Amino acid sequence: MTITGQSSLAKDEVERMVRDAEAHAEEDRQRREEVEVRNSADSLVHQTEKVLREQGDSVSPDERSAVEQPLSDLKQALEGTDSAAIKQATETLMTASQAFSQKLYEAAARDANAAGTSASGQSSDAGAGAVDDDEIVDAEIVDDDDPAGNTTQQ
């Protein structure tokens, strides 16, 4: 197979294409930013809806509605084309979502603490599943096939 220069572009054609690319660079940057803002917002909507579905019953209705309203606002903003409105709604939902996640974390910690305490008031950590420090062994693994006799620390 032989490749020849007969199908290459003329120098003035290449220069015109470079000028066009430079002229549209700012427009391309803005479009890219809009797409990134929209993708970020879509992702946040999806994550928030998933958390509400899976763990929304763990918090009070007031705490749940504190996230649902900004979620609804962001969905409405995504229906439009105003990138600034989408960005603002995303930040509002992000703040509300973080507060909601904190409430879920606190509720989970309370539940874990309540489950970890037995009826006598003692922690269940001292039960049969606890590991005694005397049972922990520090060891080296020796590879019998290694001709140099090197060891590997674990």
Short synopsis of the structure:
With 154 residues, the protein is mostly helical. It has helices spanning 11-23, 25-55, 61-79, 83-116; strands at residues 140-142, 151-153.
Give an account of the 3D structure.
The protein has a domain at 10-115: Substrate Binding Domain Of Dnak, Chain:A, Domain 2, CATH 1.20.1270. It has four helices and two strands; from the N terminus they run H-H-H-H-E-E. The chain has helices at 11-23, 25-55, 61-79, 83-116; strands at 140-142, 151-153. A two-stranded antiparallel sheet has the order 1-2. It is flat and about 80 Å long. The mean pLDDT is 79.
Any key phrases for this structure?
single chain, 154 residues, mainly alpha, Substrate Binding Domain Of Dnak, Chain:A, Domain 2, two-stranded antiparallel ribbon, 4 helices, 63% helix, flat
Radius of gyration: 30 Å
What is the H-and-E element order? Answer: HHHHEE
Structural class: mainly alpha
How is the biggest beta sheet arranged? Answer: 2 strands, antiparallel
The overall average pLDDT, rounded, is 79
Separation of the first and last Cα atoms: 57 Å
> Count of helical segments?
4
- Level of helix content? 55-70%
- Strand composition percent: under 5%
Q: Do you know the CATH topology of the domain at 10-115?
A: Substrate Binding Domain Of Dnak, Chain:A, Domain 2
CATH class of the domain at 10-115: Mainly Alpha
